[in-house]
Amino acid sequence: MAEIAPFRGILYRPQDAQHPDVSSLLAPPYDVISETQRQALAAKSPHNAVHLILPKDDRGGDSDGKYEVAGATLRRLLHEGALLRDAQPALYRYHQVFMPPGSTGPSSAASPAASPIIRRGFICRIRLHRFAEGIVLPHERTLAGPKLDRLKLKRATRTHLSQVFGLYDDTARETDAAFSAIEDRPPDLFGTTEDGVLHRLWRLTDRAAVTQVCRLLRDKRIYIADGHHRYGVARAYRDEVRAGGAGEGPWDQALTFVNELVADQLSIEA
């Protein structure tokens, strides 16, 4: 079934290693960012992720020059050391901490304060499959325009800048055990986005624990919750690279955040 693997991630280097808050560098998914929001995010920091996922060509217009800008920005951030590639492969434990819908407002005896939801998952590489194989399953159709846009960005950066969001069935939460030790320590990176969501990330590099997680996912199907265009673009890019004569390589995988399909980590906002 699903074949996952660790990878050497490219992560922001926090200015304060003792307090690795990267809030000013975070951005929501590219397709929910308005132009006003984009400008606000870009003004926060020249290193904000919006410069990569939603690039802008200052020469004007909506030409393909913006993709060249993204590629140049990525190379600059790596050269400056604002972004660093990890020395060893890891699975990246990732928490999103947020309040359930409708829970805003002061607490009272009649309306006690709600407890935050902690969505626990991890970021990994997952081998690309055709949907007909029944290993990675979609639930919506994709559009040609957004796919071409993200494909051009992929060609210019040769990097997975945004993850696919996948769900897998693990009601027993067996995978959680492999991450329990690292969750006892402060996160390697954290930050809060404007919607109030707290994001926390740890590196899991212990070989035995990584192997355990990979083994547990082997009999699972991955259901795409979000990122159908990103998954389709990863497959299209793989096909382009393979058509150029390349063999097996990192283009055969997609960067994916996978989350247990359990009720207390999910919410639906009407």
- The averaged pLDDT comes out at 91
Q: Helix and strand string, N-terminal first?
A: EEHHHEEEEHEHEEHEHE
- Write down the Rg: 19 Å
How many β-strand runs? 11
Strand residue content: 15-25%
Shape: globular
- Helical segment tally? 7
Helix share of residues? 25-40%
Distance between the termini: 34 Å
What low-confidence regions span 5 or more consecutive residues with pLDDT below 50? none
Keywords:
alpha+beta; 270 residues; nine-stranded mixed sheet; two-stranded antiparallel ribbon; globular
Describe this structure in words.
It is a single chain. With 270 residues, the protein is an alpha+beta fold. Helix content is 29%, strand content 21%. The protein contains 7 helices and 11 strands. Strands 1, 4, 5, 6, 7, 8, 9, 10 and 11 form a 9-stranded mixed beta sheet that branches. Helix 4 (144-157) crosses helix 7.
